[in-house]
Write a structure and sequence with these properties.
Elements: H1 7-29, H2 36-63, H3 66-73, H4 76-88, H5 94-111, H6 122-148, H7 153-172, H8 186-211, H9 216-221, H10 226-236, H11 244-260
Helix pairs in contact: 1-2, 1-7, 1-8, 2-6, 2-7, 3-6, 3-10, 4-6, 5-11, 7-8
Length: 272
């Protein structure tokens, strides 16, 4: 993006490609019937976890920077904790409440670091989309967790991406009229294949497999590596620089994350 694909076009190919892959794998690995009541939950999760999550992500990434997006995504475990408390009654200690506010404050510092409060600012809008994207994915993580104890991960993902593909169509079909496959070279096709196979099929499958055995907060805990990896790659490619406000935002977010994952007796543990 934006030279070869719009966010909507990329979303279409990502949804369609991942659904086909999960459907084919399901033919050989899982032949389960899903209860209708569970299909409703999976359908809602599919919309929030794929369509809305990825649409906001691609729009945000198109306007913001990879490192900004990665740092904002560090707030995901905090939002998972909030949704878990609301939806399944998990208790939140005072220490975790402080951590939640600190993490949220750090994200807002990063969103507003240009000092431009106008919604016409591309970076502001992109970072705001990233925050909403994180909220959507955190809601998906908590919503999909109960289903994982009943079905095979491939079964769940097949249905998640079926509903995701269907709900993505109204947002993506119109954009396909401007897509030209003739403009793509081998590098662009390989990049698209990487997005579909590695960052969609494999990433969602590994996450949902982890959710079968771990709490949603524990799984989301590993997103803390994302800013470090994204920053290293961005510096390696010469596409990012640091400002004092970004350093403050990163420190504030990680301080909030530390408090959220810290027990009252002083020991730290993954969020659960």
């Amino acid at each position: 993006m934006p030279d070869y694909f719009t966010p909507e076009q990329l979303l279409f190919f990502r949804m369609a490609g991942a659904f086909v892959m999960f459907y084919v794998f399901a033919l050989f690995t899982a032949n389960e019937k899903v209860d209708r009541k569970d299909l409703w939950r999976i359908g809602i999760a599919g919309f929030f976890g794929t369509t809305l999550n990825q649409l906001l992500f691609f729009i945000g990434l198109n306007l913001s920077t990879p490192v900004d997006m990665a740092v904002i995504h560090v707030t995901s475990p905090i939002f998972v904790l909030i949704f878990a408390a609301i939806m399944i009654g998990e208790k939140i200690s005072n220490l975790k409440i402080i951590g939640i506010f600190m993490g949220s404050a750090g994200a807002m510092i990063l969103i507003l670091y240009h000092g431009d409060l106008s919604f016409s600012s591309n970076t502001f809008t992109g970072n705001l989309m990233a925050l909403l994207n994180t909220l959507a994915y955190a809601f998906y993580m908590v919503l999909i967790k109960p289903v994982m104890v009943k079905y095979h991960p491939i079964t769940v993902m097949k249905w998640v991406f079926l509903f995701g593909f269907i709900t993505a169509l109204p947002f993506t079909l119109g954009s396909l009229s401007t897509f030209s496959a003739g403009n793509l070279g081998a590098g662009q096709w390989l990049a698209l294949a990487f997005v579909i196979i590695a960052t969609t099929f494999m990433a969602y499958l590994l996450t949902i497999f982890a959710l079968k055995y771990l709490e949603a907060g524990v799984v989301s805990f590993y997103i803390y590596f994302q800013p470090i990896i994204a920053t290293a790659i961005a510096f390696w490619l010469g596409k990012h620089d640091f400002t004092p406000s970004k350093v403050i935002a990163i420190m504030t977010i990680f301080a909030g994350v530390y408090l959220v994952s810290k027990k009252q007796n002083g020991r730290t543990e993954p969020i659960n």
